[in-house]
Amino acid sequence: MNTEGHHPADMTPVEQRVAALEALLTEQGLVPEGFIEEITRRYESEIGPMNGARVVARAWTDPQYKLRLLAEGTAAIAELGFGGPEGDHMVVVENTAAVHNVIVCTLCSCYPWPVLGLPPTWYKDPPYRARMVREPRALLAEMGCQLPDDVEIRVWDSSAEVRYLVLPQRPPGTEGMTEAELAGLVTRDSMIGVAHL
Amino acid sequence: MGRVLLVDGIHDLGGMQGLGPVVHSPAEPAFHDRWQAVARALLVVVAGAVRASGGEFRHSIERMEPGHYLTSGYYEHWLTAAATLAVEHRLVTRFELQARAGGWFPLSGPVLAPPVVDAGPDVGEARFGVGDRVRVRDWHPPGHTRCPRYVRGKAGVVARVHGTHSVPDVEAHGTARRYEPTYSVRFDAGHLWGDGQRGVSVHVDLWDSYLEPS
Questions:
Q1: A-chain residues within 8 Å CB-CB of B100?
Q2: What are the backbone dihedrals phi and psi of residue B157, each rounded to the nearest 5 degrees, phi first?
Q3: Domain B133-213 has CATH 2.30.30.50
Q4: Does ipTM top 0.90?
């Protein structure tokens, strides 16, 4: 993406700025060949909520695994092969009939990349970050996650090095399903804590 | 552009009002446009080249001009951080960036806190245990911190004791490091906001030096 000499009319100002920085860093030999493509490929195909869904499905079907997951999240998640940046210190919090957990990062956009992928836009934008710690019951309802008044809400602001993952409740009527089938039911939003299953 | 003095940064959003509805989507691509992936990769490149700590990286976003911060998305924040760190560490100049971009290239504002030369001793042992009552220091540091404004001065209860980690307030401002335990502290939301809401707790992860006994 070399912009020297001209700027294509269809480039937005932010694209022009990205291209400028990319060109200057590339000329200094700081951008390894294929590095941008590699980052794109990893986050588009290898890292995402399908990983967290496997962790949840395993916890639903293996009580011993669930105990390990809730006690030592990072190690239990690593058993399934997931780990790395933003996943080195994992804590898993369990939703029950009485307690509902939800994750936010008010200061930036901390999020457990190895199990959920890159955070969605709304998680990173100001309204969610501002409101989830102030009026979570109202915001959850607005997002389609109604909770009875007697359900306790626990909000987790990821303000240090720990990253949180919500273990959603297993939906009723799924007793006969395999672990792989269960994983297919688990949504990104249920593992952030903004949706029921 | 005038010098913008950021003391309590615009990034510290917990509890702020009037920012509008949450525009939720059930699924979205990792990158909506190629430039976002490039910006993300370039931050990794710059942070590696200048050996920026996580604290220094985050602070380079927090120093963005507030209006720019609120009206640009995550990857424009990353782009601004990458360019700011690249200029501050003399990999490139603002003049070069603007010449190549063909226009204004907004960068983050200056670091206002002095460099941390003496980080002080590490804290190895956790001062607090689960169930202990603590109060968050009420202060407004000029540099980077991971202590959100909405809990400063507030009392809470230690819910979990996490491991020992590098203090962001130190690592953002030089090469010195100090390690301290971190805790998940539980605050009653009705107490935080004084609005009578019940059955809601907010847990915030805080470094040892952010806390005092209550």
A1: 3-4, 19-20, 23-24
A2: -125, 135
A3: yes
A4: yes
